[in-house]
Specification:
Radius of gyration: 24 Å
Order of helices and strands: HHHHHHHHHHHHHHHHHHHHHHHHHH
Shape: globular
Distance between the termini: 84 Å
Length: 618
C-alpha cells in the first residue's frame, strides 16, 4: 500500500515539477531580456554623454522603470531556493509532524505577502492617474507590474507546495494565507506599536521558514488592526519608491560583470596568478583561495557569486589535496565574505541608498577594511590548517609575470571601476555598466565566452538582482514603521547606555549589530539598522564613512554564523556537505574575523581624538 501511494505521488509530482521548471525558465528568460535591455539603454546613454557630448533626458527614468519590471518578474524566483532567504535551520530540527505544520504556516505567510503585492499593486494601479512627465507613460504601469509579480508568486508558491507536500497541504497553506490577509483588513484598535507588531509577526514567519521579503510584507500588513498607517496601496507605493532608485541599477550590472568573468574563464586566470604568489607557502592552496578571492572581489561585488564559484572550482581541488570536505567548504565560505567589503561592493551600494553616504568614500574605506580582513584570514588559515601538505614549488619571476599578464583583463576591471567612481569620472551606475562592457569585450577578445555563456550570465544575474531589489523594496515599508514609532530614539538609548562617547557607542553598536545579524539577512539588516544607528554614531563624534564600513564588516561576518549563514549554505549546498559540519569548521576563521572587527572598531573610536594631531603633523 505504501509503495503504491508513493508511486501515485510521484506520478502527480512529475508533471508539477515540469510545469514549475518551465515557468522558472520563462521567468528567467524574461528577466535576462529585461537586463539586456537595461544594459543597452544605460550604455547608449553613457556613449551619448561621453562621446557625443549629449544625453537623453528620459534614459534614467526609463532605466529605473525597467529595473522595477525586473524586480516584478523575479518575485516568483525569490520565493523559493537560496534567493528566498528562508531561515529553515530551526524547522529542520523539528519532528516530522511539527515540521510539516511549520512548512504549511511558512507558506501561508508567504501567500499573505504575495496577496499584499497582488491586491495592493492592483489597487494603486486603479487609483493612480496621470503620466510620467519625462516618459509619457501611464504611472499605473509600475504598480501593475508589482501586482502581476505578486499573482505569479502565488502561482509559483502553489505549484511548489503541491509538488513538495501534496494538494491538501498546499490548500491548507493557501487558506492560512487568505485567513491572515483577512485578519489584516480588520480594525481592532488594539494599543500596540505597529512596528512591534510587524517585528513580532515577521520574526515568527522567519523562524517558521517563510521567505524573508514576504515575511516583512506580511508583518507590515498585519499592523492594520493595531492602528498601522500603511494599508496595502501604501505598502506597494513605498516598495516601488524604495526599489526605484537609479543608484540601485549598479547592482544587476556588477552581478552581470562577475558572472561574465566566471563564464568566460577569467576568474580561473586569477586563481592561477594567485597560486604563483602564495601557492608555495604553508596551506598554499587555501592561501591561493584567499588571494584569488581578494582579486575576484575587485570585479564582482557579490559574496554569494564568489562563494558559488569557489565551491565549484576551488573546493574540489582542496578536497583532492587532502582537505576534509567541511574544512574546504569553510575556507571557501570564509574568504568569500571579502567580496562585499573590497570594492566594488553591493553591500556598500545598499548602505549608500539607505543613508545617502558617499559611495566613493565608502569604497575607499572598503579597501582598508578589506586589507585588514584579508590579513586576518591569512593568519587564520595558516594557524588552523593542520596535517595537509599542499605547498607547490615556488614560482619563478617569469611564471609570475606570465600569470599576471593572463590575469590583467580581470584585474583591470576592478581598477577601471573604482578609479572611475572615486575620482568622479563616471557615476556608480555608469561605472557598473562600463564594467559589464569591459568584461564582455575582454572575454570575446580572448574567445573565452560564447552566446550560451552570455545567456547563462544574464539569467543568473537577473534572478539575483531581482531578489536583492525585492528585499530592498520590502524593507522600505518596514523602515517607515520604525521611523513613525521613533525606534531610532529608543535605539539611541540602547547604544548610549554606557555613555555617549565614541568608544561606548562603538562597543554597543557592534553588540547590537552582532545580535541582529544572527536573525536578519545582511541586506535587510543594513537597510533597517543603518538609518537608526548612523545618527547616534555621528552624535558621538564618529566618522560616518568609517562607521558605515564597520557596520558592513560586522554584518558580513554573519554570512558565516548560524542560523542564517548564507555563505555557508551556498557552499554546503553545492558541495553536498552538511551545513552543521561547515559551521563548526569555520570557527577558527570566524574568530580571526571578530578580532579584525575589534581592531577596526577601536581604530574608528580612536580616530576623533587622533585626527587633529595627525592633521597638525601633515
Amino acid at each position: 500500500m505504501a509503495r503504491d501511494r508513493m508511486r501515485k505521488e510521484n506520478r502527480t509530482r512529475r508533471p508539477l515539477a515540469r510545469i514549475e521548471a518551465r515557468l522558472r525558465r520563462l521567468l528567467e528568460g524574461a528577466g535576462a531580456l529585461l537586463l539586456a535591455a537595461l544594459f543597452a539603454l544605460v550604455m547608449t546613454a553613457v556613449v551619448a554623454r561621453y562621446v557625443a557630448g549629449a544625453g537623453f533626458v528620459w534614459s534614467d527614468e526609463l532605466a529605473t522603470w525597467l529595473f522595477l519590471a525586473l524586480v516584478a518578474i523575479g518575485m516568483p524566483l525569490a520565493a523559493n531556493g537560496v534567493l528566498a532567504m528562508r531561515l529553515d535551520v530551526l524547522v529542520r530540527s523539528l519532528p516530522q509532524g511539527l515540521g510539516r505544520i511549520a512548512a504549511v504556516l511558512a507558506d501561508g505567510i508567504a501567500f499573505h505577502g504575495a496577496l499584499v503585492l497582488a491586491s495592493g499593486g492592483a489597487s494603486v494601479a486603479a487609483l493612480v492617474g496621470g503620466h510620467s512627465t519625462v516618459l509619457g507613460l501611464p504611472e499605473w504601469l509600475r504598480f501593475a507590474a508589482f501586482a502581476g509579480g505578486g499573482a505569479l508568486t502565488i502561482l509559483t508558491l502553489l505549484l511548489s507546495a503541491m509538488r513538495e507536500r501534496g494538494l491538501a497541504a498546499a490548500a491548507a497553506s493557501l487558506l492560512v494565507g487568505v485567513a491572515l490577509y483577512g485578519v489584516a483588513q480588520l480594525s481592532l484598535d488594539i494599543g500596540m506599536a505597529p512596528s512591534l507588531v510587524a517585528t513580532l509577526f515577521a520574526g515568527t514567519g522567519l523562524l517558521l521558514g517563510a521567505p524573508l521579503p514576504f515575511a516583512l510584507l506580511a508583518g507590515v500588513s498585519m499592523t492594520g488592526p493595531f492602528g498601522g498607517l500603511m494599508p496595502e496601496p501604501a505598502i506597494v507605493q513605498t516598495m516601488v519608491g524604495g526599489a526605484g532608485k537609479f543608484l540601485l541599477l549598479a547592482i544587476p550590472f556588477f552581478l552581470l560583470a562577475g558572472e561574465l568573468l566566471t563564464e568566460g574563464g577569467l576568474a580561473e586566470r586569477l586563481i592561477r596568478f594567485a597560486a604563483t604568489l602564495v601557492g608555495h607557502r604553508r596551506a598554499g592552496l587555501a592561501q591561493t583561495a584567499l588571494v584569488s578571492s581578494v582579486l575576484f572581489s575587485g570585479a564582482s561585488g557579490s559574496s554569494i557569486a564568489n562563494a558559488a564559484f569557489g565551491a565549484k572550482v576551488m573546493a574540489p581541488t582542496l578536497v583532492a589535496r587532502g582537505y576534509p570536505p567541511a574544512n574546504a567548504a569553510a575556507i571557501v565560505a570564509g574568504v568569500s565574505m571579502l567580496d562585499n567589503i573590497i570594492p566594488p561592493s553591493i553591500a556598500f551600494l545598499i548602505l549608500a541608498s539607505a543613508t545617502n553616504l558617499s559611495v566613493g568614500s565608502l569604497l575607499v574605506g572598503g579597501f582598508v577594511a578589506g586589507g585588514v580582513l584579508a590579513l586576518a584570514l591569512a593568519i587564520g588559515i595558516h594557524v588552523s590548517v593542520r596535517g595537509v601538505v599542499d605547498a607547490s614549488p615556488k614560482a619563478s619571476a617569469a611564471e609570475r609575470g606570465r600569470a599576471l599578464i593572463g590575469a590583467m583583463p580581470a584585474i583591470g576591471l576592478g581598477i577601471v571601476v573604482v578609479v572611475g567612481i572615486r575620482f568622479g569620472v563616471v557615476t556608480v551606475t555608469e561605472a557598473s555598466a562600463l564594467a559589464v562592457a569591459y568584461a564582455g569585450l575582454a572575454c570575446l577578445a580572448l574567445r573565452s565566452l560564447d552566446g550560451r555563456g552570455v545567456v547563462t550570465a544574464l539569467r543568473k544575474s537577473a534572478a539575483e538582482a531581482a531578489a536583492i531589489g525585492l528585499l530592498i523594496g520590502a524593507s522600505a515599508p518596514f523602515a517607515f514603521l520604525l521611523a513613525v514609532d521613533r525606534v531610532s530614539e529608543q535605539m539611541a538609548g540602547v547604544v548610549t547606555a554606557l555613555g555617549a562617547g565614541p568608544l561606548a557607542v562603538t562597543l554597543l553598536a557592534n553588540l547590537v549589530l552582532l545580535a541582529a545579524g544572527l536573525f536578519l539577512d545582511i541586506g535587510a539588516a543594513i537597510l533597517l539598522l543603518a538609518p537608526l544607528l548612523l545618527p547616534v554614531a555621528i552624535a558621538a563624534g564618529l566618522d560616518p564613512i568609517q562607521f558605515g564600513v564597520v557596520l558592513v564588516v560586522n554584518l558580513m561576518i554573519h554570512g558565516l554564523t548560524p542560523p542564517l549563514g548564507i555563505l555557508v549554505y551556498v557552499v554546503s549546498g553545492i558541495m553536498r556537505v552538511p551545513a552543521a559540519d561547515v559551521f563548526r569548521a569555520v570557527l577558527p576563521l570566524l574568530g580571526v574575523l571578530l578580532i579584525a572587527l575589534m581592531a577596526l572598531s577601536l581604530g574608528m573610536a580612536a580616530w576623533p581624538a587622533l585626527a587633529p594631531s595627525l592633521a597638525a603633523l601633515f
